[in-house]
Amino acid sequence: MIALIGAGIFKTNPITDRTPNPINTIHTVCGSIVILTFPIVANLAVHSLLHNPLWLANQGLLVLGAILVWIGMFVFFGSIIVARIKDPSAGEAGGPHVYQGWPNRFMVVTYIIWIIIVEVIELRI
Questions:
Q1: 22-40 burial, b if ≥16 CB within 10 A, otherwise e?
Q2: Which of 33, 40, 55, 59 is the 20 to 30 Å CA partner of 26?
Q3: Cα separation values, 28 from 3, 13, 22, 42, Å
Q4: How far is CA 109 from the centre of its chain?
Q5: Which letter does DSSP use for residue 58 in this model?
Q6: Per-residue pLDDT of the chain (125 residues; tens, 9 = 90+)
Q7: What is the DSSP secondary-structure string of 4-69?
């Protein structure tokens, strides 16, 4: 949860700005933690919740949310791979002509949708 908040609060540098910045570093570290661990944590939570009889009625919605999280992550990493294949000379960041922000935002939205699904189910139980 702290990494989610840290990635959201601390502003990242523009893709063309390579100057060292502690705020950017905090965003990058927190964002990396969230990107890499959220799908695993979501799956573990869904697995645990499905062992609780109160949550079984919402099994389909929970699984759909977990699948959506993985789709979000794969779209994000897929966009990075495609950007590198299209322009291998662009460097690590991909350059300003590569729209890396949209897949990242899509991934974040899928993570948020999962949180909303779990919270709505919990409120109904």
A1: eebebbbebbeebbeebbe
A2: 40
A3: 10, 10, 10, 21
A4: 7
A5: G
A6: 788 888 889 988 887 788 889 998 999 899 999 999 999 999 999 999 999 999 999 999 999 999 999 999 999 999 888 877 877 665 555 555 656 778 989 999 999 999 999 999 999 98
A7: HHHHHHSPPPPTT-----HHHHHHHHHHHHHHHHHHHHHHHHHHHHTTSTTTGGGHHHHHHHHHHH
Query: What values do phi and psi take at 109, rounded to 5?
Result: -65, -40
55 contact partners, CB below 8 Å, separation of at least 6? 49, 62, 121, 125
- CA neighbor of 82 nearest in space, from 70, 96, 67, 100: 100
pTM, full prediction: 0.84
- As a whole number of Å, the CA-based R_g of the chain is 17
If DSSP codes are grouped into helix, strand and coil, which group holds residue 49?
helix
Q: Which H helix or E strand runs over 121? A: helix 101-124
Place of tokens 């702290």: 2
